[in-house]
TrEMBL record, chains A, B:
GO terms for molecular function: DNA binding. InterPro entries: Homeodomain-like_sf, HTH-type_Tx_Regulator, HTH_TetR, Tet_transcr_reg_TetR-rel_C_sf. Residues 35-54 bind DNA. The lineage of its organism: Bacteria, Pseudomonadati, Bacteroidota, Cytophagia, Cytophagales. It holds the Pfam family TetR_N. Residues 12-72 form the HTH tetR-type domain. It comes from the Bacteria. Keywords: DNA-binding. This is TetR family transcriptional regulator. It comes from Arsenicibacter rosenii.
Length: 197, 197
DNA sequence: TCAATGAATTTAACACTGTTAACTACTATT
DNA sequence: AATAGTAGTTAACAGTGTTAAATTCATTGA
């Protein structure tokens, strides 16, 4: 059965090749320039082959988005294991958010349907996202035990502030250097977390 | 010369018809569904006519974006005339931001390239946006006179928080009713403004 | 060894997109 | 009445997502 094994491995490889190529084109030319035929060309196949791996372009984008959330969730978990102090935890999680957005901007764009990236599938509802939400909510709760609604409110606020500064930093990156935006990001989130006490 | 006058008036009307139809389709079906032919059909013309008014789809989107910023700028000005207290001014401006985003979501989406809306033209650089930035910066300055850099930083923060909560409210509107999101918005911005003192 | 099966891959097509050139129909002027 | 100019159309090009049909090719069975 090693033939089947090898077959599956190369199948997994071309699958990853499709995902990689899509992100690669998006990074270089923007998501509006990503087309099935371009992807197929890059991996030396014809267009219909892509549909052997992803039922539609939308599902391909959804997969890339899901990978993004999965990656972030693992980073969240890593941080939770690394630190015990809730403040430190939330701050490090905030920093990871920034790091991720600027190291993998194409993925971040698909996750939030930004800048030409557009995936019809609802952004919410993935298990990874719910797990991330729980981690952050628990962290907030652990140093200010309040009602469920209050915690949810603070979580929503935290997420909005983080996402807001990240997206505005991307939009204004030509008028305001990202180094400066990053300082403001750290500053604002540090203050937000401090005020939770 | 009244013939020319009438001609120009109807020309202006079809121009507005194009803009209106584009926004109308976007509102109903999303920006990804907006096509030149659909717009042309709706105004009972053939597709090339649209190009008599806008050199490209991108420029049409740019125009809609510019209109959005122009509208907001006028609202900013109205508020500046209506109130004298800097805190009140900034708070009302914040509220207008929210109101605009949810009353004209298609326009807001084009302005920030959200959810399938994509206009290549740089978001920044319009006169209206610079004017709005100045109004907000002056308002912030008028009750905490600090260095130019500090004011810019606070302005950036304010904009990010506002935009962040608005976009997250749109994304999460199925899991969290917008009424509740609006409360959090008001709350957070009130706190932000209070902490400026 | 040859035929047949099955899978892997491609070609061709459909309906759509933005965009432009060529064409038609009509109106106003000389 | 002939001409010029304009308003609007059709037709086309290259590209898009997507699917069905056709093709190629290796493997199996007799």
């Amino acid at each position: 059965m090693e033939v089947l094994e090898r077959k599956q491995r190369t199948r997994e490889q071309t699958r990853q090749g499709i995902v990689f190529t899509a992100k690669d084109i998006a990074r270089r030319e923007g998501w509006q320039a990503v087309s099935i035929r371009k992807i197929a060309d890059a991996i030396d196949y014809s267009a219909p082959i892509v549909y052997e791996y992803f039922d539609s372009k939308d599902i391909l984008l959804h997969e890339i988005r899901a990978e993004g959330f999965r990656f972030l969730r693992e980073e969240y978990n890593r941080i939770m294991k690394l630190y015990r102090d809730p403040e430190k935890r939330l701050y490090e999680i905030s920093l990871i958010q920034w790091k991720f957005a600027f190291e993998q901007p194409e993925t971040y764009q698909v996750m939030y349907n930004l800048n030409g990236a557009f995936c019809q599938v609802s952004i919410c509802g993935t298990l990874d996202m719910e797990e991330m939400a729980n981690l952050v909510r628990e962290t907030i709760f652990s140093f200010i035990p309040k009602s469920k609604e209050s915690i949810q409110k603070l979580y929503f606020e935290w997420w909005s502030i983080s996402h807001g500064i990240i997206t505005m930093s991307m939009i204004l990156k030509d008028q305001q250097p990202i180094e400066q935006s990053e300082i403001i990001y750290r500053d604002t989130l540090r203050r937000f977390i401090r005020n939770l006490r």
